[in-house]
Write a structure and sequence with these properties.
Chain lengths: ~850, ~100
């Protein structure tokens, strides 16, 4: 007999013995003995072994079958008992289910969003084989999204590690269709764009190679969202204008095509070669599919060889530049990890608070049933039996909360979808998702488990003499409440501190007088506003538009001053450029703005030295620039800055003035150069006007003036400057609001926990209170004593929460566009709010305690 | 027609084997008979489980008898009146069905 077979025989024998089938084993022995008379020993041994092995399975199935039926019968009886017990206490049951469904629902929503956005693979073919290529500035160790066009067209075809790649050049354009104009985000793309990720068009087709050429036809592919919102019927073959150029619609991309960004609504053929792009500017998004058998690391090695060759060929642009291959999932979804982790963590805290609250309720209920339990114990019910009942009741509550929790989760995901559309969590369908339902059930099981702990501890840990008394100690109740308050206080403090910090960012002094300023944008299409570099800066149509708009706004009632620029003041996205100043070794990273002379009046910029830009700074006169103090400091001081010369847009320019700094949101005071609009026009116009009226009331008339000048233009983002600042911090504000909502729910639960605990303590000490009052104690003293207990509970919770908050603040602060200052006042406000809550929640039990009638209390107690 | 309960095929075989073995119907003998005459491989465990089930249904009765050389009494099985009726009814039914004729191919 082989060693393996021997082990199986022994295991089978052990199994039969475990199933208590000794009579079968005995029959087997007897059968072997009998067979030995007529068969050889080997034949008998083989028979015996075969019988052992073949008998194990039917016997085990038989045993389990009988066991399962018995358990099911017993379970049904316990289940019926639990349902009856919960129906007998409807208030408790409904409250517990509501609390649990809130906690579980919020957790399911957060986990589902996390799963859909960060864990689920991208909705493309073999998504793990997709990569993105980015540029790394090795001097500053900063990563820039994109690759210079010439490198894409010249160098990438030689990279063997890429089986296929596609390039995208994002743009905003004014799209005209059916007599209406809209500004939409789009991208010029190579013909491989859809195929590289393995998608096929939703309708029609994508560009052909012939269309993706300099002589290709003007065709466009729409996003499914844009098609549904703007067209309705079959759009194929219809025409729309993009910046006044008619394009034929040839297809609709599927809804999951979110390249180069999730906001792209149309794609046109790139149709150009390396000559159309500047080797200095990494503007093209590159997505590639790895060749079979290639990894990201091996492609990175190949790319590094390409870096070296490019650095040798183009040292002026590529000496400090290299390319980095990254996973596409990380590029598209990585930025959402931080906020989602914080939501998940906050939801987890709320689940904890709900669980602790439900556990408190459960504990309270069992305490009230102490007499019933004692009776049952006296009648012979074992601890195991009572625990089984407790398990069934707790489990039933948690499972009953699951449908409501899924409803809460579904509603929350819809809200999250509206609040953060860029996260693309529209594929989350809570009610149809087995994962979400499974997670909700897992939460329910966890909640049941945690909910059982206090009563189980009370039942098992108490001294044997006290085992019949299942009432848990007041210390356990207080611990539960302190934990609830701690978690609620952590959420509330985080929300208040983050909101306060973000509001501080929006209100921060940025060196300009932002009140009563209206800003807005309008893009001038090159078809009617020619912007060729050959004629720069002589762009008569652009200048004419700017002058006419300024002239119209100047006479508009309420306008104090108005100006044109290329950038909204204090924008979080400045236009950075490397500027080579004569006599300076290093280039200066500079924010370049193109402004009309009134810009200084509109913003209230202070002249530090030299002169401001004037209407004489035209293309016919000397080319000049004004710089800010930060730029002057980079040049070694204001004296050295005045008269400094640099070349920009093919013209040498002299610095004639230094003005005060303007802090950009998230960037601080960065060196800035302001060029006269007449000497450096820009087709992407930002207009700003100072008014002595409410800026919001001016928006309509500004829009009318622009339409009167050119009806085909589509002005956008017209808002007051404070509103613009606020929008820069909108993501963080939304997040703080979300945490705040969770904090409110957690705080209500925590407060109800304090109320219940103090009520119970007051009730338990009714007799003692009666005696004290009979002996002359003053009711106000008893009142203050109960309130003091509430304050102590809350303070203990705060003591847990505040150190945890300090640890988590760094991560929270990362949600803001610039490092927010931690306001001690906001922490103090949160602590004060919780202390007030302590007084409010302990008021009723304290009032009841103080109103106890001594005689009744002593008699009843 | 009198109603009778449905017997599984293996239960029917075990009942037939018990009737055939008479006073010698114990688990190993039943298993041996089924294996020798049925041409199908079975196991003592399957026979054992089926016997317990038939006993629960009241179709067979176990009679523990002390056997020489064995520490435990051995269970010998006999058909109960109800078991004999069920077996006869089932075999009659099979006979009637067969008498209907028809081409087996």
């Amino acid at each position: 007999m082989s060693w393996g077979r021997d082990r199986i025989d022994r295991a089978s024998r052990a199994l039969l013995a475990a199933c208590k089938r000794d009579d079968l084993l005995s029959d087997l022995e007897a059968g072997a003995e009998q067979l030995r008379r007529e068969r050889t020993d080997e034949a008998v041994a083989a028979w015996y072994s075969r019988q052992l092995r073949r008998s194990a399975l039917p016997v085990l199935a038989d045993t389990l079958g009988i066991g399962a039926r018995r358990t099911a019968r017993a379970g049904l009886a316990e289940g019926r008992g639990a349902v009856r017990a919960l129906c007998a206490a409807p208030g408790f049951s409904v409250t517990s289910i509501a609390i649990l469904s809130l906690g579980i629902g919020i957790s399911v929503a957060a986990a589902s969003a996390f799963q859909a956005v960060l864990l689920a693979p991208l909705p493309y073919e073999a998504p793990d084989r997709l990569a993105s290529l980015n540029t790394l500035d090795s001097r500053r160790d900063t990563s820039l999204r994109g690759v210079p066009g010439p490198d894409v067209f010249e160098a990438l075809p030689d990279v063997n590690g890429f089986a296929e790649y596609a390039a995208f050049d994002s743009f905003f354009a004014v799209v005209g269709f059916d007599g209406q104009t809209r500004r939409v985000e789009g991208a010029a793309a190579t013909s491989s764009a859809l195929g590289v990720v393995g998608l096929t068009p939703r309708l029609g087709r994508f560009f052909s190679d012939a269309e993706d050429s300099a002589t290709g036809a003007a065709v466009v592919v729409l996003s499914e969202r844009f098609w549904r919102a703007g067209f309705g019927a079959d759009p194929i073959g219809q025409t729309l204008s993009i910046d006044d150029v008619p394009h034929t619609i040839i297809g609709v991309a599927p809804s999951n095509f979110e390249l180069p960004t999730a906001e792209a609504d149309l794609w046109v053929p790139m149709g150009v070669g390396p000559a159309s792009y500047n080797r200095r500017a990494p503007v093209l998004d590159v997505i590639a599919r790895l060749a079979p058998g290639t990894s990201l690391q091996t492609v990175q090695g190949e790319i590094e060889a390409m870096d070296a060759a490019l650095a040798l060929a183009y040292p002026e642009t590529h000496a400090n530049r290299r390319f980095l291959v990254t996973d596409l999932h990380e590029r598209l979804r990585g930025s959402r990890r931080g906020p989602l982790m914080i939501i998940l963590l906050a939801a987890g805290f709320l689940l904890l608070v709900s669980t602790l609250n439900a556990a408190s309720l459960q504990q309270e209920r069992w305490n009230r049933r102490a007499r019933e339990i004692a009776t049952r114990r006296a009648l012979g019910a074992s601890s195991a039996r009572l625990m089984t009942q407790l398990v069934f009741e707790t489990g039933l509550l948690a499972v009953a909360a699951v449908p409501a929790a899924l409803g809460v989760a579904s509603g929350l995901v819809s809200t999250l979808r509206t609040w953060a559309p860029a996260w693309r969590i529209d594929e989350v369908a809570i009610l149809d998702s087995p994962i979400a339902i499974g997670f909700a059930l897992a939460c329910a099981a966890l909640v049941s488990g945690i909910g059982l702990i206090p009563v189980a501890v009370a039942a098992l840990v108490q001294a044997p003499s006290q085992r019949d008394d299942w009432r848990s100690s007041p210390r356990a109740s207080r611990s539960l409440v302190v934990a609830q308050v701690g978690a609620a206080a952590l959420l509330a403090t985080s929300s208040i501190a983050l909101l306060s910090a973000l509001s501080d960012i929006a209100d921060r002094d940025r060196g300009i007088d932002a009140s009563r300023i209206l800003v807005g944008r309008v893009d001038l299409p090159s078809t009617r506003y020619p912007t060729g570099m050959q004629t720069y800066p002589d762009w008569p149509e652009v200048h004419r538009f700017a002058q006419e708009l300024m002239a119209r706004l100047d006479v508009e009632p309420g306008v104090v001053a108005n100006a044109m620029s290329s950038q909204v003041p204090a924008s979080a996205a400045p236009f950075l450029s490397e500027l080579a100043v004569q006599g300076m070794e290093d280039d200066v990273t500079t924010n370049v703005q193109h402004v009309t002379p009134n810009w200084f009046d509109v913003l209230g910029l202070r002249l530090v030295d030299g002169r401001r830009l004037t209407s004489d700074d035209t293309a016919q006169n000397a080319y000049v620039a004004v710089v800010n103090v930060a730029f002057a400091q980079r040049l070694g001081g204001i004296d050295r800055a005045l008269g400094a010369r640099f070349t920009m847009y093919g013209r040498e320019r002299e610095v004639v003035g230094v003005v005060s700094n303007t802090d950009a949101v998230g960037q601080g005071a960065i060196p800035s150069v302001l060029l006269p609009f007449a000497q450096a026009p820009n087709e992407f116009i930002v207009f700003a006007l100072r008014t002595d009226l409410d800026p919001a009331t001016m928006a309509a008339s500004v829009r009318t003036h622009i339409r009167e000048i050119d009806a085909a233009l589509a002005p956008y983002e017209i808002e007051s400057l404070p509103q613009f600042m606020q929008r820069q911090t909108a993501g963080g504000t939304r997040m703080a609001g979300l945490i705040g909502l969770l904090a409110v729910a957690a705080t209500i639960l925590g407060a109800s926990g304090v109320l219940a605990t103090l009520s119970r303590a007051a009730e338990a000490r009714r007799k003692e209170v009666g005696i004290r009052l009979a002996l002359g104690a003053r009711p106000i003293g008893l009142f203050m004593r109960v309130v003091g207990e509430g304050v102590l509970l809350i303070c203990s919770g705060l003591l847990i929460a505040l150190p945890l908050f300090m640890v988590s603040w760094t991560r929270l602060a990362a949600l803001a566009p610039e490092t927010p200052s931690l306001s001690i006042a906001s922490i103090a406000a949160a602590a004060t709010a919780f202390l007030l809550l302590a007084v409010v929640s302990s008021w009723i039990p304290a009032w009841r305690a103080a109103r106890v009638a001594p005689a009744t209390a002593i008699k009843d107690g | 027609m009198a109603r009778h309960r449905t017997l599984a095929q293996f239960e029917l075989f075990v009942l037939i084997a018990i009737r055939a073995l008479g006073d010698e119907a114990w688990s190993v003998a039943i298993e041996q008979l089924l294996e020798d005459t049925g041409g199908r491989s079975t196991s003592l465990g399957a026979v054992y489980v089926t016997l317990r089930r038939l006993e629960t249904k009241g179709l067979v009765r176990a009679m523990p008898i002390k056997v020489e050389g064995s520490r435990r009494p051995r269970n010998y099985y006999r058909l109960t009146a109800s078991g004999a009726r069920e077996l006869n009814a089932t075999t009659d039914l099979v006979q009637r069905m067969i008498s209907l004729g028809g081409d087996s191919t």
